[in-house]
Amino acid sequence: MEYTEDNYLMISGIQHFKFCRRQWALIHIEQQWAENVHTAIGEIMHQRVHDPELREKRKGLIVARALPVSSREMGVSGECDVVEFRLSEDGIRLHGHRGLYSIYPVEYKKGKPKLTEEDRLQLAAQAMCLEEMFSASVPVGAVFYGETRRREQVEITEELRQEVRNCFREMHGYFERAYTPKVKYSKACNACSLKELCLPKLGKSLSVKAYITGMLGEEEV
Question: Which residues make Cβ contacts (< 8 Å) with residue 62, sequence separation at least 6?
Answer without folding.
Answer: 55, 56, 84, 85, 94, 97, 101
